[in-house]
From TrEMBL:
It comes from Cytobacillus depressus. GO terms for biological process: response to antibiotic. The lineage of its organism: Bacteria, Bacillati, Bacillota, Bacilli, Bacillales. It holds the Pfam family Erythro_esteras. This is Erythromycin esterase family protein. InterPro entries: Emycin_Estase, Hydrolase/PRTase-associated, UCP036794_erythomycin. Transmembrane segments: none annotated.
Length: 418
């Protein structure tokens, strides 16, 4: 099998010598509603640089109107306000990125993303309001930050929904912003805040039209309320069912995308930046055997394969930013050569240069054998590299794949983490 795959890669892969070679991917995209850009780790410089260039091209050449990332909505909203010109206090993108102060800070507080943010701000200055590109975080973790944002806005506007928000935040106060403490209490002792956050979401959703203004306050309020409801469910579930908590998280991400689309009357087009494990269709991996779904699968089911393009990213070796355990400080680690027989190993053996592989009706069947595919998270240990491979049918998981033979660690900014 290895020799056949190597030959197929050599036949169909296109060289990726400089950023102009991304044209082959741009030409692949026509009327898609979403383009999903993956990464095999959250700490690799080249993935951010290449996705940034693809994002610029998709905005200029293909009319895409927002970027959705695997990040917190409140922190990403600071970026959104900056690039749309609503933030008149921040001097530059570097200052804005201080908002990303919750671990793992390096995912968005890094040098590589600064150029894209400044580019988006400059691009938006020449666009009418309805065509300004947005930047949104679609992850689920910002329970307390989202409640803070809700309280702040409702108090400023003297909203009648303020009591529901106060009841919700008061319910969570005994847990001192410790998600695990809340999860244990909710899962084992029945002491949860489910009713409070659902009431808050219902109240906000029913009255969302009264919060409309030129700075997307209605969308901001609604999504923060949605985060509160879904995060409560996530933290309650993760204590007893890891697979289902994953599903809650990825379904939440798609729900946020749908709220964004609805807010813009389904006229928007989204570029999604997330890990390969979220964007690459779960049905083409062993995740499906455990009943696990992800964003790529859910969007394909919702929109149809023809309305989105999924692009995976991977490397053979290099360095990466990660932590050795959850919540610890990040460090630069070496990424060892890919495991023998893995997808990344065969891409390397097909020629050690960078390359782009597009899957088509003609060649898809050649790449649909199950093969190990490397995935590195925010927690990583090179000593246990063998556990970092997801059995995958690559051409069913993605529509294209970008391979970088040697990659380098991301360059984190110094921020005060919480």
């Amino acid at each position: 099998m290895d020799e056949k795959l190597i030959q197929a890669i050599q036949e169909y892969a296109k060289p990726f010598d400089d950023l102009r070679d991304l044209n082959v991917l741009i030409k692949r995209i026509h009327k898609e509603k979403y383009v999903l850009l993956g990464e095999s780790s959250h700490g690799t410089s080249e993935y951010y640089q290449i996705r940034a260039e693809l994002t610029k091209r998709l905005i200029v050449d293909k009319g895409f109107t927002f970027i959705a990332v695997e990040g917190d909505w409140p922190a990403c909203q600071r970026v959104n306000e900056y690039i749309k010109g609503w933030d008149r206090k921040s001097a530059n993108a570097r200052e804005v990125l201080k908002a990303f102060n919750r671990w793992p800070t390096w995912m968005w507080a890094n040098e590589e993303i600064i150029d894209l943010i400044e580019w988006l701000k400059e691009y938006n200055q020449n666009q009418p309001r309805e065509k300004k590109v947005g930047f949104y975080g679609i992850d689920i973790y910002s329970l307390w930050e989202s409640l803070d944002e809700i309280i702040k806005y409702l108090e400023e506007t003297n909203s009648p929904d303020i009591e529901a928000a106060r009841e919700a935040i008061a319910c969570f106060e005994p847990f001192h912003r410790q998600a695990e403490k809340y999860g244990v209490s909710a899962a084992f002792y029945g002491e949860d805040c489910h009713d409070e956050v659902v009431k808050l979401l219902t109240d906000v959703s029913l009255k969302r039209n009264i919060y409309l203004d030129n700075e997307e306050s209605g969308l901001n309020l609604e999504v923060n309320a949605l985060i509160a409801a879904n995060a409560e469910n996530y933290y309650r579930t993760m204590i007893v069912n890891d697979a289902e908590s994953w599903n809650i998280r990825d379904r939440h991400m798609v729900e946020v995308l749908n709220r964004i689309m609805s807010f813009f009357s389904n006229q928007a087009k989204g570029i999604i930046w997330e890990h390969n494990t979220h964007v690459g269709d779960a049905r083409a991996t062993d995740m499906a055997n455990e009943g696990i779904v992800n964003v790529g699968q859910l969007l394909r089911e919702q929109e149809g394969n023809e309305n989105l393009t999924i692009i995976g990213f991977g490397t053979h070796r290099g360095s990466v930013i990660a932590a050795d355990s959850w919540g610890n400080n990040f460090k630069q680690m070496m990424t060892p050569p890919a495991q023998a027989g893995s997808w990344e190993d065969l891409m390397h053996k097909a020629g050690s240069k960078d390359k782009i592989l597009i899957f088509t009706d003609e060649n898809r069947v050649m790449f649909n054998e199950t093969i190990g595919h490397r995935a590195i998270g925010v927690v990583y240990s090179p000593m246990y590299e063998h556990g970092n491979y997801v059995p995958s049918r690559i051409s069913e998981r993605y529509d294209a794949f970008v391979y970088i033979n040697n990659t380098n660690a991301l360059n984190p900014l110094k921020v005060v983490k919480i």
